[in-house]
Amino acid sequence: MTCNHGKWKKVSKKKKFRDEYAAEDEAFNDFFRIGISLNSSKKSGSTELHLKLYEQFYASDIIVASPLAIRMLAGHKVDDKANDLGEKAMDQDFLASIEYLVLDQAEAFVFQNMEHVEEVLKALNKTPKKLTQLNDITRIRELYSAKIPKVSKSVADDAPEAFARGVTSYAPLLRQNIVISKFRNVDLDFALNESCSTNLFG
Questions:
Q1: Distance between CA atoms of 115 and 145, rounded to whole angstroms?
Q2: How many degrees, rounded to 5, is the angle at CA 81 between CA 76 and CA 84?
Q3: Could you read off the pLDDT tens digit of each residue along the chain, which spans 202 residues?
Q4: Spatial CB neighbours of 193, under 8 Å, sequence gap ≥ 6
Q5: Less Cβ crowding at N or C end of the chain, within 10 Å?
Q6: Is there a contact between 104 and 62 (Cβ–Cβ < 8 Å)?
Q7: How far apart are CA 71 and CA 201, in angstroms?
Q8: CA distance readout (Å), 54 to 91, 95, 138
């Protein structure tokens, strides 16, 4: 909301956002998720910026969600009471082109269930299995869909752990990971080391 100094020409579904997240009860909601898209259009010689809330994840530029929400939306079985959707019903393609991963207030994950975080991190930047949900083909970057043809010695020297773990795509190597936490934790460090320590830059 603070982008462009708050001067948005149009913010869609703003009332719905206030109704859902202004209540005190929502402060304890661990299943929050919202897709945000940013669009610009030229009109009368000036550029108008539009912010759309509650956009579908496949059309979103920003996804704000809890690890639990992402895991359940992707079709993972969370517990014994949850429905086991099975591999065929799992949909993780909306996580394929994540360029920036921000874990804000990461210390809270330690007091919840770290397994949710671990499973979401493992699902990031996988090669898309289908394109039926994709509205704009330009959202797929070539680097994010291309396979690494051959590991050169220089690349292997820069990120030996990545190739030791069988990384075959450029996407997880180029993703920027930002973790904001009040303290360090062994479990959180382990999850980040497993899934976020193989990038070549940044």
A1: 27
A2: 35
A3: 445 555 555 677 888 887 777 776 666 678 889 999 988 777 767 777 888 899 988 889 999 999 999 998 887 665 544 444 444 456 888 888 888 999 999 999 998 899 999 999 999 988 777 766 665 666 666 666 666 655 555 555 555 555 545 566 677 788 889 999 999 999 999 999 988 877 665 4
A4: none
A5: C
A6: no
A7: 27
A8: 18, 17, 21
Domain boundaries, the chain: 1-65, 66-202
Residue type, 83: N
**Alpha carbons 59 and 36: distance in angstroms, whole number:** 8
- The token pair that represents 93 in the structure block: 């393609």
Q: What is the pTM of this model?
A: 0.74
